[in-house]
Amino acid sequence: MSKTIHVALVGNPNTGKTSLFNALTGLTQKVGNYPGITVEKKQGWCTLSSQISAHITDLPGTYSINPTSLDESIVLETLLLPADQKAIDVLLVVAEVENLKRNLLFFSQVRDLDIPTILVINMADQMEEKGISIDVAKIEKELHTKVVLTSVRKNTGLESLKAEIEKYEELPKHSDFTLLSDRIDANYFSSLQKVSSRYGRYQLWLIATRNTSIPFSKEEKDFFDGLGKDAATYKKYQHKETIYRYQRINTLLGEAYDQDFSKARNLRGKLDRIFTHKIFGYLIFFGILLLIFNSIFEWATVPMDYIDGLFADISEYVKGVLPDGKISNLIVDGIIPGLGGVVIFVPQIAILFLFIAILEETGYMSRVVFLMDKIMRRFGMSGKSIIPLISGTACAIPAVMSTRTISGWKERLITILVVPFTTCSARLPVYTILIAMVIPDTKVLGFLNLQGLTLLGMYLLGFFMAILAAYILHKILAIKTSSLFVAEMPQYKLPSPKNVLLEVYQKTKSFVFGAGKIILSISVILWFLATNGPGDYANIEQNLTEKWQEKSISEKDLEQKVAAVQLEKSYIGIMGKTIEPIVKPLGYDWKIGIGIITSFAAREVFVGTLATIYSVGSDAEDTETIKEKMAAEINPDTGEKQFNFPTGVSLLLFYAFAMQCIATLAIVKRETNSWKWPILQLVGMGILAYVAALISYQILK
Length: 701
What we know:
By secondary structure, the chain is of the alpha/beta class.
């Protein structure tokens, strides 16, 4: 490509902005963070022609150029860059057909920043269904812009949009803010224009009202400070600005936009009455959760068994191909079992993300937010707290970051502190393998899987614990705050298969590579610690061989006994034996104790750790799968299976409550700007997990 056009997507939430981004970029997109900020940044590439490509950035959704959250402030900071520093060639402001009035308020603000802008009216395929007609030519003329009607779901209008992006240099730069500001206070805005020639009048107005840090020269800053108004005056001017903008928008839409409700075929009202019903709404939500977790076990069983067996076959094959030695042992006993402990859970993780993506795409998730608002407020949280709690089922890290939409500090802090109780995807591998070993694979009522019901119970336990903890914190924390709950109910729509699959692909890929890096690193470390030891460790095999050969023991039994003793005498065995007195009352042996310690890096490491330990401790010809090795482990004190029902329940409760995720602690520290709160989480949740596991084991054993 000889030329690259830098494009930014902006718009209100629920306009289909992200769907448009996915349609344009597909699998070329990358997800990162803005420099120094934990807000997610999505970028991708789109081919416009043989010679021209577009680099597209999806900026966070915002209702106004004036941000009310940290996420929304990214939009303002990006758009306020002076002309000589701008990394944006053209802006795509995404609107949708049924909320055009509200969308155009944001468009009119962005349009006054003197940036080439295209108005993309999405969901155009619904115009006939909603009885809507739009005079595109009239809107283009009045707003001095290009308008493109698109439907991502029907894949229409995208080629026209690409053509307009390619011709962005022909787009007019136009601002009506001078006329508008003269109606507000001509003298003030005329003086404000003189502060700096690098910024337009509307940019300077936004800088003044948002108190944004701008690199003015000393003379510019002194002049700018001298024009300062009090907060009440700024608020009055902003109010007038909004009124004048809506006056013009109303006039325009009165001439260019029409909706004939007699022609509309809208089921939204009827569906809302069902999904947000004070009784049936909760029953439907619970039923959907039941379907999700039942499906996680039912649908994932075959591919999981295949993957489990595949890694066992790979391990056996590598043993036969590679010569004996340290490198061979590292690959066979460290790397392969560690990776197998991650990949085996891909089917379940993908199914979970599939359902979440479908619920979000259809618009149902917003109804859940509305439905849960009254409940959340009783426990000291905002209605918006349900969004982090639900997104916490994927990962606590973005869930903690999503609390930035909560305006009240107390509500936000409580939500941050309780989010780790919700069952994230990192707990799913631990839950599923434990449930599969200690809960019978039987049917309830003839069609419900008991293991799926147990998994649902673990998710509900985490959610209810989060609610209880929030209530306690609400009573304890002496923080005065007030906030309002404002949430939009988007239109119902059929989920786009492309968007859903992209979401599943991105989230599953993130899990595999994110968890995989950690587990692979820890697997190598564990292998080293499990195959080396202090003192006379290197001579253990020779000494035991000489001792047991005299007792006419079989070669296979000898190899197993040597492997078991070597593991106990290794560095990791010594560590495990040291902490065994602490974890033994919970029903754990030293091997499980090692798994608990290593899983502080990430909860899902627990399974990979045990897979590595059991692989190192097994005889050379053992090709059993991870699940079979764990299920066959015997407690030497009782002679019974190590992973029995009491121990399994104890472990499930421990992982339900323990704060075992260093990355989440780091994010909590960053979001609260204090080590006080993450330390409180770590200690409080750790004590709760230990006590719950202790009580359950002592009662059930």
